[in-house]
């Protein structure tokens, strides 16, 4: 069988009425072991802008502070 991998890129972002959310458009391409595109498409997702407290987002200093409590 074929081995496929997904290439995902951010196509666009857009503000919406709710300031805690944003619209994200992603492009997907499935590529086989020879580098041939087997399938492609896109998706629009309504995403929360405020990261969950346990998420490891932000600058390295913030990440280091978050990890202090994980020990």
Walk me through what this model shows.
With 71 residues, the protein is mainly beta. The protein is built from one helix and three strands. A three-stranded antiparallel sheet has the order 1-2-3, with no helix packed on it. It starts with a strand and ends with a helix.
Question: Summarize this, please?
Answer:
The protein is mostly beta strands and 71 residues long. The chain has one helix at residues 60-67; strands at residues 4-15, 21-32, 37-48.
Straight-line distance between termini: 43 Å
Discrete helix count: 1
Molecular shape: elongated
Question: From the alpha-carbon coordinates, what is the Rg to the nearest angstrom?
Answer: 17 Å
Topology:
Blueprint: E1 4-15, E2 21-32, E3 37-48, H1 60-67
Antiparallel strand pairs: 1-2, 2-3
């Amino acid at each position: 069988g074929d081995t496929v991998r997904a290439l995902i890129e951010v196509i666009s972002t857009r503000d919406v009425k709710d300031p805690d959310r944003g619209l994200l458009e992603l492009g997907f391409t499935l590529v086989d072991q020879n580098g041939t595109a087997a399938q492609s498409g896109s998706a629009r997702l309504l995403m929360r802008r405020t990261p969950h407290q346990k998420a490891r987002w932000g600058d390295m200093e913030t990440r280091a502070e978050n990890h202090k409590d994980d020990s």
